[in-house]
Structure formats: C-alpha cells, structure tokens
Amino acid sequence: MDYATFYRRSIDDREAFWAEQARLIDWERPWDQVCDNSNPPFTRWFVGGRTNLCHNAVDRHLAARAQQNALIFVSTETGTERIYSYAELHREVQTMAATLQSLGVKQGDRVLLYLPMIPEAAFAMLACTRIGALHSVVFGGFASVSLASRIDDAEPTVIVSADAGSRGGKVVPYKPLLDEAIRLAEHKPAKVLMIDRGLSPFERVAGRDEAYADWRERHRQAQVPCAWVDATHPSYTLYTSGTTGKPKGVQRDTGGYAVALASSMKHIFLGNPGETYFSTSDIGWVVGHSYIIYGPLIAGMATIMYEGLPIRPDAAIWWSLVEKYKVTSMFSAPTAVRVLKKQDPAALKKHDLSSLRALFLAGEPLDEPTAQWIAESLGKPIIDNYWQTETGWPILTICNGIEPAPSKFGSPGKAVYGYDVQLVDESTGQELTGANQKGVVVIKGPLPPGCMQTVWRDDARFVKTYWSSIPGQQVYSTFDWGIRDEDGYFFILGRTDDVINVAGHRLGTREIEESISSHPAVAEVAVVGVADQLKGQVAMAFAVLKDPSVAATPEAALKLEGAIMKLVDEQLGAVARPARVRFVGVLPKTRSGKLLRRAIQAVCEQRDPGDLTTIEDPTALQQIKDLVQG
Ligand code: AMP
C-alpha cells in the first residue's frame, strides 16, 4: 500500500484503522469501543478490552518459540554474556513477580526500579506489568535528590535496586545514593529488593532491605499467571523533564501501548519474529522501555540488552554483536555515532553486517555529517525518528515497512500514521500550511494509541502543560520548533522551552538551576543549552555570587566551579553536570525580571541575540559575551 493512503486512513478512518492494528496482539476480551474521545484530551483506547503487556511480550510466544532466544544480555563491564530463551524468561519473570507479591505489591501499586542494565531489570519490568503493578524506572545516572523527588511522586511500595553499576570499567555504587534518596524522601517504601552483583559491598537496612538471591531461591518454581487488566489500566510511569523544576510522571496505558508497539515494530522497525533487535539505549529512558523491552519482545524477537560503552574493549564491539547474533534492526542515538566517528574507521569493516537491514537513530537532532558518515560506512539505510517520552513511539520517521521511501538528510521524515502533525504560529496559534514555514510542532488530538494518558496524579498539569500552550487551540504541543518542506518532510529546529538535550538525555535547565542555587555561595543562576560537536548540546551555567570576592582570583573561581559541579553530581547525577560554571556580576533580564535565556544561549553560540529592547541592563549580556568569547 502507498504510505499516503495508509496515513490518511489512520486519521480519517481512525476506528477501523486501529481495530486492524489491534489484531497484532492478544486480547483476553476484545474492546467495545476503539477510541473514546468524549473527554478530550483524556483519550481512552480500546475501551472494554482486557489484555496484559507481559502476556503479549512473553507468554504468547511460548507455544511457537519457547526455546528461541528472547533476551541476550551482554556486559562488557563485567565480561558477562547470558542468553534467556522465551521459556527461561517466562520462568525468571514469574519468580520476580512472586517475589514482588510476597513483598506486598498489589495491582495498581508502583514499583520503582533504580537499576543498571542487568537482566533483572527486564524481569522486574515484565513482572510488574504481569501482575498489574506500575513500574517507574529511574535512570541509574540520576543521583539522590533526583531520585528522592521521583520516590515522593510515585510513592512506590517496593524499590528494586542493585549494589552497583559499572561504566568504563569503573564501579558506580547505587546503594549509597538510594539510601540517601530514601532518607531525603517523605515517602518511605515498605521494602527494598536488592540485587547483589558482587561489585560493591553495601549496608543492609534491617527490616527493609531484602536479598533477591534468597527470594529467587524460594520462588524458583512459582507460577504467577498474568493479571488481565483493562486496556486503559496504567502500565507504567516514566519521569521526564520540562520547564518547571519538578519532573513529570508520564503515565502510559496497557492496550494502546501494546498495539502501538506491535504496529511500529512491523511498519517502522522492520522486525519479524525470530530475528534479533539491538537497541543501545538504557532502560531508564523511553527508548529502553519501548524498544529494548516491550517492542521487540511483543514482536517475538530476541532483544539485546547491552551494559557498557560503545568503544570498550574497542570501537568494533557493537558490530561484533551484530555479526554474532545476526542483528536485523539496530537502534541508537546520534551521540553514540559521533563517538564512533572519532575512532578507527576500520572497526566498521571488521565484521559481517549482512544481517542488518537498517540503523534507526533517535533522541536528538541527527546532523548531516554524522548521518552521511554512518550511512557511507555501514552501507545501510539510516532511519532517523523523532519522538518523545510522552508519545512512547515515533511521531516522525519513514515507515519503510509500509512503503519504502527515501530519507532526506537533516529530516526525521514524515508524520507517522496516527499522528495528525501540524505546525502552528507560536503567538497567534494559526496553522501554517505553506511549505518551509517555521512553527511549533503540534499534534491535533486525539493522540494515537501508546501516547501518554496523563501526568501521574496530575490531570490538571497534563492539560495545562501540553494542551494549553497554543493560543486559541486545544492541540498537543511537542515544544519543538519545526518546518515542513513541499514533500511533507519535517525538520526539527530545537525546543521552544527550557529543555536541553545533552547526548540524547533530556534535561530541564530549571532542575540544574535549582541544584546550583542550593550552593551557599550562589545568589542566582541561569543555565542554558549550548551547541556541542559531540553531545549535540551541553549545559552552561552563569552564576551571580552572594559575595563576588570568593571567586576573585582565577584559582578561587576554578575551585568554586569544581565544588558546584560536585554538588550537581551528588544531587542530580553526572548527566546534569554543566560543562562550565562561570561567574558574572549580573544576569541579563527583562525589565519585568524574566531571565533572557535565549539571548544568553545566542551569545554563547556566537549568534545574534535578537531583539533586546526589553533588557534591563545591557552590560549583563556583554559580560557573558566577554567571558565566552574572551
Ligand atoms: P525524550 O523525551 O527524552 O525522548 O526527548 C524528546 C526530545 O528530544 C524531543 O522533544 C526533541 O527535542 C528531541 N528529539 C528526539 N528525537 C529527535 C530527532 N530524531 N531529531 C531531533 N530532535 C529529536
């Protein structure tokens, strides 16, 4: 079928279209209504239907592929390689599910996972959805303060964690950060289930901390059936950053998500049962949820879970896995490709990559030199795809599984079926229908299956944040600028809000500002994202000190800068650490006191800061200019 017809049908004949897609998964009970949009923007998909994510990812494959590889775990950090067949995965997930039940987890409860990339993370996610509990995975790179705010928002019954992760051969202890986070949080979990990898000794809190090794032994043969839940039952929450300092819990449903993933595996990611999928992301991010765990397993594929760096032991490690496991689809991020690009190009020629159909990239803008380099080096199609934690699956890409189409450098592609993507004028809300006009990328409701249902426990915030930012229109804002060319290809031009994207990691500048402001020497601070060759963007901080004399000499300034970075590391995690913290006498603000972040960013990127008629003190921007260009 041609893509244009397929796409039009998904919008114009929504119910019939998605009813067809819904047949890609198993249902205990079929739906009564495909799409209930009677209370927008709270769209409910497959109302009346009952299903289970874990059943679709694991159990339903047992009949045909029990002995086939399901989860391939590779850690170049610990030198471990372990393969679980679907039958073994089924066994492990039931053992984990029985353990969680023994620790008091019930349907609807939250289980927070603070884990490195280990198989138990996959078991725990699947165990939660198996019993109808919600998992809330917190990226292992986050530190105590970030973790504490997520614990307080999710209020988990149980936290599953491990002694440590490992990065570049260096052990990164998790337990002390977790203990500190629980101390800081108001909500105290009943139990902490500890997976001891033997990497880092840790203290057990009596009565609270449980050893998974013991429970695993106890529940070796446990039978835990899948709990059939309503299609609209929440499957998980995942925190993401926005304009305010407080992270938002993106809440996802069950049925719509399973359908969207099954459909995207077929139409976008070219995945077939029995083949192998390799996503290099982390389970702490949405790509890890959708395309390490659920998507490939729902499709009956083997999925590779990789702990380690792309260049250790050498830059050929990923390609050696492609060869060894005959990977057919691979998913990574532009930053990883830029890292590989700096290595010996021979690494790409050492292995037989004939199994690979395409490399999918997402998470941040894919610049042309990077795209060109990897396309030429691999000799395979490179498929950019644009989406967000909120949507759970791609908004823009090329759906080669429907109709092969060319990619254009710099563009993630066209609107994906199900998404009525539009561009609107930021100030008037008017739709921009002409080619090559710059506007805010919005989606006209209803959002397709798989997208966020609401902000966890905060319906008002869901409406206010996402559906009320465009004047006169109730449309979903992506908070990205974009243009669309005459062929319908979109180009993403950056965020409209205070979110920055560092190496594909989404960070709120306000969160970083709050952390820096908690340093006793700091009076106020502005954090902006600045273009970076390797990471796409890096965070830059400009701080005003309570007493400027404490950073009067270059040595003193450097020392204070180091102390502030350490504070951010401890509170938020190294992912949020700014590249530099510079000290200024005053920050550029409007006369009404609003920080001129876009002007600061422009100056840092040596661009024209634009209209500055509202600036209170023009010397403020000059100070920053002198610092960064001096
Ligand atoms: P996250 O929720 O962490 O996936 O971050 C989503 C944001 O990352 C989007 O709003 C974009 O700003 C950016 N992004 C994701 N994928 C792409 C892409 N393929 N091209 C450009 N920007 C992207």
Order of strands across the main sheet: 12-11-8-6-7-14-15-25
Based on DSSP secondary structure assignment, what is the total number of beta strands?
32
User: What is the helix content?
Assistant: 25-40%
Spell out which ligands are present: adenosine monophosphate
Based on secondary structure, the structural category is alpha/beta
Task: Please give the count of helices.
Answer: 19
Name the assembly state: single chain
List unreliable stretches of 5+ residues: none
* Separation of the first and last Cα atoms: 58 Å
The 3D shape can be described as globular
Structural write-up:
The protein has 630 residues and is α/β, with parallel strands linked by helices. It has 19 helices and 32 strands. It binds adenosine monophosphate. Adenosine monophosphate is lined by residues 240, 286, 362-366, 384-386, 388-389, 412, 478, 480, 492, 495, 501, 506.
